[in-house]
Amino acid sequence: MTVESAMPEYSPGLAGVPAGRSKISYVDGQAGALEYRGIHIAELAVHSTFMETSFLLLFDRLPTPDEVSRFSNDIILHRRIKYKITDLIKCLPEQGHPMDALQAAVAALGMFYPAREVLDPEVQYWSIVRLIAKVPTIVAAYYRLRRGDEQIQPRDDLDHASNFLYMLTEQVPDPLIAKVLDTCLILHAEHTMNASTFSGMVTASTLADPYTVVASAIGALKGPLHGGATQETVEMLEEIGSVEHVRPYINQRLAAKQKLMGFGHRVYKVKDPRAIILQKLTQQLFAHYGRSLLYNVAEEVEHVGEELLASKGIHANVEFYSGVLYKTLGLDEDFFTCIFAMARVSGWLAHWLEQIKDNKLFRPDQIYEGQHGRVYVPIHRRLGGL
Ligand SMILES: CC(C)(COP(=O)(O)OP(=O)(O)OC[C@H]1O[C@@H](n2cnc3c(N)ncnc32)[C@H](O)[C@@H]1OP(=O)(O)O)[C@@H](O)C(=O)NCCC(=O)NCCS
Asked: Is the beta carbon of 154 within 6 A of some atom in ligand 1?
């Protein structure tokens, strides 16, 4: 028997290969269902808050009123970032990607708050609090500083979403807008074994500190096949520009073997349940602020996309309407993925806790396809270039 035939069958992208056991979230890709700790996402989106949902994900139960208020207060009290982190952000190029700024600042946080004792419950709790609290402050600081504006300090009397919007604009947002953003954070908080979570878990399995774990996950989230798709979706919709251009654009794009951004999912073979909720939220905003052209284009893209791709199980995913929604809120496109990260930090940390509780270092195998026994040729005898 060869070594290769003794191995389990190789699955590119590890598609369908379980990489862990988890009690955090569950996806049924055929039924279009997503649950956090057994509770359907649609219920959480209507009744919960991002703070409560984060508690649920992290500690496996809905908190009592006292517990959620203590957790929220601890987070509120840790929102400020050290001036050295602000200085670090000031030194980053204005034209850089905000996800890179976030990754650098989160990695730097780990130098200010050493958390090597990862199994210590106190270290775990305060690292969780600091990360959930400070990620929005870092994002808002880069948003302001790269425009040459002053950083705005967080306000302790505002909830998580309102405070984030306040740190961007120095205005307390309309409660409807804050509620919509909070719901977006709930929808993006967790999603089973996706690329960024896996990346964080691989880092967690080395017993690295939680700041390093989250920094790894942020790096994976940035890519256009994952969280970066929100920005790319809106750029695609803007490139299309009008409802009449949708069909020829999609035909051309698919003929060139290019993917439709915001469509398709490794697990969902029906419309992503989060996209359904996000679409409704976007419509709620329009009822108050007027419908946008971009939304009209998006609806037509979904219509034509469904017609052409539904037979392959390809439908709108969570990124499709989130970009349109963030654009309606007036946010810069390259910040969309940072909002995803602000939400997913809770899911990443829930997986961090789960991973280190029963840890085994990730060290998968590979199928070697290179040569063996090649002769080393001294450099002076290598003629003819490469
Ligand atoms: C998310 C994604 C990477 C998952 O795909 P996957 O399970 O790895 O599947 P593949 O990329 O191998 O695609 C399988 C087939 O579906 C097609 N497909 C997948 N997504 C597509 C899309 N968005 N538009 C057009 N065709 C798509 C592929 O071209 C391929 O077709 P083929 O079998 O004829 O070659 C993929 O759907 C994608 O790239 N989507 C666009 C980016 C995006 O929105 N990402 C956010 C995900 S939440």
From this structure: no
Q: Which residues contact 247 (CB under 8 A, 6 or more apart)?
A: 300, 304
Judge contact between 53 and 36, C-beta under 8 A.
yes
Residue 113 corresponds to which tokens in the numbers above?
């708050």
Q: What are phi and psi of 23, to 5 degrees?
A: -115, 15
CA 33 from centroid of its chain's CA atoms: 19
- Using a 6 Å cutoff on CB, does residue 301 contact ligand 1? no
Q: How far does the centroid of ligand 1 lie from the alpha carbon of residue 261, in Å?
A: 9
Question: Tens digit of pLDDT for each residue in 103-126?
Answer: 999 999 999 998 999 999 999 999
Closest CA to 222 of 94, 350, 341: 341
pTM of the model: 0.92
Write the Ramachandran bin of 241: left for phi over 0, alpha for psi from -120 to 50, otherwise beta: left
pLDDT in tens, 192-228: 999 999 999 999 999 999 999 999 999 999 999 999 8
